[in-house]
Amino acid sequence: MTLQEYIEEYSSPEPELLARITRDTHLHVLNPHMLSGQIQGEVLRMLSRMVRPKRVLELGTFTGYSALCLAEGLDADGELITIEHNDELEETILHNLSQSELCQRIRLLIGDAKEILATMSAQREGLFDMVFIDADKREYCTYYDLVFPLVKTGGFILADNTLWDGHIIDPAYDRDKQTQGLRAFNAKVKDDPRVSQVILPLRDGLTIIYKMP
Is the pLDDT of residue 123 over 90? Predict the structure, then answer.
């Protein structure tokens, strides 16, 4: 038994719906490794339950797995807004979300996250308690700047893939645009006096960022 297998065995099992989404994603969708999966999904669920957010924003829906995990911790009248750029996934996302009793509390927006975030800022849309960034790695710094004003003081920003399968410290990837984007993001957060942060070596790296008072 590997350590990963041990962790999976002694953590809460993947709920039936999420297991079905995992299987269907691997069968029918390109790049299924982008799925959060059992352990990261459980961590997202735990974090959301601890915060009990009224409003959550997600950048990068993929097939809806992480949205369903984050939605489990929503306050009684809470809402999760999730943004996906790939319109070819819309039907799959809506189908997956519709199988959960949480679907009425999740709003899917299809389009460019940067444009949608700019519109939110212009309209002064209500603040979010939690934001999960899991979209184009080259744009993480831009996403961070756009979402920061939308996050409540005392709120959290979660950023996925911040270790990038170890490429983040591998000189062989110095010219890779996604690696460059993630390195710039990690450095930006590290140097931001408005936040405290920690990178967890979970899956592909998960950064938890706290917006300080």
Answer: no
If DSSP codes are grouped into helix, strand and coil, which group holds residue 63? coil
| Beta bridge partners of residue 196, listed in sequence order | 210
Q: How wide is the angle at C-alpha 92 spanned by C-alphas 208 and 105, nearest 5°?
A: 55
pTM: 0.94
CA distance 63 to 30: 11
CA distance 153 to 92: 35
Extract the tokens encoding 16: 């039936």
pLDDT tens digits, one per residue of 19-46: 999 999 999 988 888 888 999 999 999 9
* Token pair for 129: 């308690």
| Angstrom distances, CA of residue 26 to CA of 22, 86, 134, 179, 207 | 6, 17, 19, 25, 26
Per DSSP, what are the bridge partners of residue 81? 57, 107
User: What are the CA-CA distances from residue 101 to residues 62, 68, 204 (Å)?
Assistant: 19, 10, 29
DSSP characters for 90-144?
A: HHHHHHHHHTSTTGGGEEEEES-HHHHHHHHHHTTPPPEEEEEE-S-GGGHHHHH
Taking the alpha carbons of 130, 205, 210, 177 in that order, is the dihedral positive or negative? Answer: negative
The residue type of 174 is D
Amino acid 195 reads: V
